[in-house]
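Our preliminary data section would be incomplete without showing what the modeling component actually yields. Below, a chain of 288 amino acids is followed by its predicted structure, encoded as tokens that our downstream tools consume directly.
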Amino acid sequence: MKDIARLYTDIVVRHLAEDRQMVFISGPRQVGKTTLCAGLSTRYLNWDNGEHRLVILRGESAVAEIAGVNQATEQKPVLVLDELHHYAKWKSFLKGFYDVQGRDVRVIVTGSARLDVYKRGGDSLMGRYFPYRMHPLSVGELLRPRISESEIADPVALSATDWEALSTFGGFPEPFSKARTSFLTRWQRLRFDQLLREDIRTDTRIRELGQIEALARILSRRSGEQVVYASLGSEVQVDEVTVRKWISTLNAFFFGFLVKPWSKRVANAIRKTPKWYLRDWSSIQDPG
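Predicted structure:
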């Protein structure tokens, strides 16, 4: 797989050099968060790794020791904590670690699900982090993978090869770079299964996994269409309130997003039906 320069590398490097707050990087599964952060780290810990999990559970001091916080180095160590939000006490752990060690180490926290601290309760991390959301590749990022010093840049043409790969195989780095239909099909199937049967099962209280999977498949075939909650509820045999919650959950896990209609009157905008779009456009079967 060819190396793809990412705009987010420049963004995170600047943050680490200029700011002491922790970096929170969220984004869709397989968008390249781990690859990016592991390349910038001096120490990498993944909650899903058994040995790494034991280190984290031993507490802030154990993590500081393994990160080399007390070692004399020219630059501050960079500690990456991947998938830490799966730890029930992740916020209190980060608060304690940052308050004691924050001046001597730079911390990057990543997660497939949205790292929304205000919806998970517990201790506040306000003022201790800056959030960044990592998106799939786009035309703009392929053309300019570094932060522009000017607000307006001269137009640049994207190569026909990159445009074809982006439109056919999507913006996720691995299928884009491999550009093989056989790989894309397997990758999409695996990503869908991991999202529904691992991420949502682990990070939410939803137990009707079969029904929310059916809802996800229905929405996948209707990208760009209006969302009629009552009709969708009838199709998957749940009430309208549950469908609304499930779609919000799918959106929080970057499966898709809603576009609400614009209106000068707020009341009209609220009443109008939104449209739903699939984030991975390579999965859309209808060419339009």
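DSSP finds 13 helices and eight strands in the chain. The chain has a mean pLDDT of 90. Preliminary results of this kind motivate Aim 1 of the renewal.
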